Amino acid sequence: MELPNFGEPEYAIIVETDTQQLFLYSYGKKVQEVMRMPCSTGKKAGPKWKSGDSKTPEGVYLLKKQYLRKDLAPIYGNRALTTDYPNKLDRLMGKNGHSIWIHGTNKALKARDSNGCIVLQNGDIDRLANYITLDRTPVVITDRITYRPAGQKDPGRPIIHGILSGMAQAVGEGSYHDFLSFFSQRYLPDINWWTQWRVLREKAAAEGTRITLDLKNIYILKHHQTYTVLFDQFISVKGKSAFAGKRKLFVAANSTALKIVGDEYQLLPDRQIALESADPLIGVATRLARSYDPDEQIIRLVDRWLAAWSAKDIDTYRHCYSDAFISADGKNLDAWVAHKKRLNKKYRFIRVTRGKMRIVQQSGSATVTFLQKYRSSGFKASGRKKLVIRNEDGEWKILRETWEKK
């Protein structure tokens, strides 16, 4: 077992089905047992393969959600924690089923009395819950725990660290052949995102920067001959880093070498990035690159300003201006905003749109010009808009604006 050290103890749960016991271990400077408690697993012995077989799965799992008594049927006791069975490795092996939980009970605990879940007494699951972090605390389910002699190291662990380092390097500067070299030939990962990723890397290189992938908070757990590896991905662009998802790999011997035999995201960075791109790496890298593109920041300011103007959102509209703003007819910011408030009351609707922008940047300031189309319930016009903006503490603000009727 290799768990990351976050400065505080990390915990791992091990369920031993032969003895019907659940163990909680802590990992700090050393691995040690924190508590053990009786449990009940599937009515039938052996690892789960299909739905309804009344068996408990074996392998390494993570806990996804927690439900309390008020949300549960009485049979689940005080609380229930859902696992991610079947994980990618299970599905690749043809295993199925669902709803494998660790939960309490409303009756006396009996050995091998569940339909596949891991059942604890209510007091025990309440104590256990204090040590659990969803999507991070591993649950290892096995028939019998085996122990390695003190001081004997697992030879597979440095190889796995080499795989992780090589993958990160391949993503940062290698080819997809380099990336695929770490995977078993019997398993082909989704690589459809690579072309788009290469384009992002090449664009960054042309701008004199790099996109790098960093893997942090790594833990490695071994169940029989398969390693489960979990880590956090971070994308870095121009010195700024952002979380790009929690990734899980399954690594096993392929002939004589350890290779990745399955992979999946355990946790995505956020739903919007997942929906926007073929892979979270692309979504996060794109957002980071945009945040450092000065023109992109200016475009976002102008579009936010136009949207607020059209929506009569006076607070957001005002926030787009510098406190030093002076209008073409000499109004300061307070007078300008008061003028806009009067127009908002006067017109039932306002719609303001723009054409293509021309941006000319200087040191800390920029001039933006575009065709502006204005339409309201009582007036419409189009003309050339010119904005003078400046960067104030990292945020672009409108300092001057003029409009010339077309």
Any overview of this molecule?
Strand 1 and strand 2 form a beta hairpin. The protein is of the alpha+beta class. The protein folds into 3 domains: 133 residues, L,D-transpeptidase catalytic domain-like (Beta Barrel); 135 residues, Nuclear Transport Factor 2, Chain: A (Roll), CATH 3.10.450.50; 112 residues, Roll (Nuclear Transport Factor 2, Chain: A). The chain contains 10 helices and 17 strands.
- In the CATH classification, which architecture of the largest domain applies? Roll
Count all strands and give the number: 17
Structural class by sheet pairing and helices? alpha+beta
Order of helices and strands: EEEEEHEEHEHHHEEEEHHHHHEEEEE
**Percent of residues in beta strands?**
35-45%
| Portion in helices | 25-40%
Overall tally of structural domains: 3
Global outline:
elongated
What does the radius of gyration come to? Answer: 29 Å
Strand order of the largest sheet: 3-2-1-8-4-5-6-7
List keywords for this structure.
alpha+beta; 406 residues; Nuclear Transport Factor 2, Chain: A; 8-stranded mixed beta sheet; L,D-transpeptidase catalytic domain-like; 10 helices
